[in-house]
Amino acid sequence: MTSEATGFFTDTTVCIGCKACEVACKQWNQLPADGDFFSGRSYDNTIHLEATTWRHVAFMERSEPLSGQTTARPFSWLFMSDVCKHCRRAGCLEACPTGALVRTEVGSVYVQPDVCNGCGYCVVCCPFGVINRRQDDGRAWKCTLCYDRQKEWMEPACAKTCPTDSIRFGKVEELKEIARKRLETLHNKGMKEAYLYGMTEEDQPGTEGLHAFFLLLDRPEVYNLPPDPSVPTKGVVKSWAAMALALAGMTAAAAIAVKQGAKEE
User: Fold this and answer.
1) Which among 73, 127, 150, 161 could disulfide-bond with 229, CB atoms 3.0 to 4.6 Å apart, if both were Cys?
2) pLDDT of 56-68, one tens digit each?
3) Whether the Cβ atoms of residue 50 and residue 34 lie closer than 8 Å to each other
4) Are residues 145 and 260 in the same domain?
């Protein structure tokens, strides 16, 4: 297994919504079935990532065509296979009080189930709402980037199964170059709305970039992604600075009040 950071590049423009990645993820990780109900959200019955759903294929029906699409009716589908982003600066990892969450040698964020105490701090500190606790044991679970498969020189089950190569797995720096070339190709074809989400720290300073990034055709909110995600601890310094400033102001105000009172006496 390589010691270089690995991750996913998901090209949503070639996703066909087949959900093969969802099935492969559940099968390999022996996750229980869910989503066996009618949600009313198109063909999306898993709705979002969960403790037992580590891959989620979102379906978006839009009343507007894609660029260059000729159709009698203004309509288009958008699909996206969502997953844990394995953030370079991970809120879940920073919030964990027991050390259950660790950074692996391939850059992924891994939950050690035997160390997790189910406190839930990681759940509220994930800006993407990825990690959650299972109802049966209370412990937190999420995508492992198929760490067990990587140790055997195998690619993650979702990427291995994807029939259109919408999910690309590999070294993060190599995936970034693939993503840039794909974006350039789409722009040259007239799909100017295409853009890369979360690839670099410049794109997302709040997470310092993601190890699972995406090529999208609409606003992040359409895909149920935050437009400007940030780990809670990112603002700690500013919060303390604001508190110190407020305390200094109150101290100064109190001193002036005491001084004024002394003069009146």
Assistant:
1) 127
2) 999 998 888 888 7
3) yes
4) no
Does residue 153 form part of some domain? Answer: yes
Handedness of CA 40, 41, 43, 46 (dihedral sign): negative
Statement to judge: residues 249 and 174 lie in one domain: no
Do 43 and 163 share a domain, yes or no? Answer: yes
Tokens of 56: 């989620």
**Residue 90 and residue 107 in contact, taking contact as beta carbons nearer than 8 Å:** no
51 and 133 in contact (C-beta within 8 Å)? yes
Buried b (16+ CB within 10 A) or exposed e, 233-257: ebeeeeeeeeeeeeeeeeeeeeeee
Give DSSP secondary structure letters for 59-120: EEEESSPPTT---SS--EEEEEEE-----SS-HHHHH-SSS-EEE-TTS-EEE-TTT-----
User: What span, in angstroms and rounded, lies between the C-alpha atoms of 227 and 207?
Assistant: 12
